[in-house]
Amino acid sequence: MKKLSQMINEANDNSNPIVIELKNALMEEFNAWYGYVIVKDFLVGPERTNIKKFYEDTAKDELEDHAYWLMERISQLGGIIEEITLSPSTWN
Known about the structure:
It contains three helices and no strands. It has helices at 4-11, 17-40, 48-76. The protein is mostly helical and 92 residues long.
């Protein structure tokens, strides 16, 4: 049986494949959020208002539900959230 301190150190290792996958998912959530935020103000056509509202709601969901949950989980596992601004090749 492993010591608790050894298990915690392994969880805090940034080469942890779970942390790496969570960071990949976080980048995807940020990209989705960005895609909705950028486009919403440039919509045209008669359904623009309804579509804009949908894009705003979806962007909020991508950021406040999905991305925030992923950031919290990455942090709990000892991952460094600031690294998502860097190339994924530097994560491990």
